[in-house]
Amino acid sequence: MDTTQLLKGVLDLAVLAVIVDDDGYGYDIVRRLRAAGLDEVGDASVYGTLRRLYSAGALSSYVVPSDGGPHRKYYGMNANGRALLAEQRANWTAFADTLTQLLEKPQSTVHLRTIGDQS
Asked: How many CB atoms lie within 10 A of CB 25?
C-alpha cells in the first residue's frame, strides 16, 4: 500500500509527537520519524511542516552554533503546540477507532439481481 497520501494527512501530528519531549532541528526530526517507521517521509515535507507549524504559533525556535558546520535551527513545543497535539491526538484516535471498527466488521453479502430475475 502506498502510504504517501496517508503520511501527508498526519505529518503535522507525527512531527509534533517526535518533538513533544525533546527539541530538534530539521534533519534530526526527519531521522526520528524514519526511526519510528515512517521511512517514506521526505526531508522537504518535514522542513515545510516545521515552517508551517512555527508560523501558526505551535512551535518556538532557536539557533544553536555548531563547531563543525552551519548553525542549527531547533524547534520546540510551546503551549499552543501542546494544545494542538492534544487536539490532533484525540482526532486521530477517534478516526483510527472508527476505521478499525469498519475494517473488522464482517463483510455483508451483496445480492445482485440478474437480468430476468423476478425476485
From this structure: 18
User: How high is the pLDDT of residue 118?
Assistant: 60
Cβ pair 6, 92 in contact under 8 A = no
pLDDT for 67 equals 85
DSSP assignments along 99-119, one per residue: HHHHHHSPPPPPP-PPTT---
The mean per-residue pLDDT over the stretch 19-45 comes to: 96
Whole-number Å distance between alpha carbons of 50 and 32: 14
Do residues 93 and 11 lie in contact, with contact meaning Cβ atoms separated by under 8 Å? no
| Dist. CA 35–CA 43, nearest whole Å | 14
Grid look-up 558546520 returns: 69
pLDDT (0 to 100) of residue 116: 63
Backbone angles phi, psi at 77, to 5 degrees: -75, 145
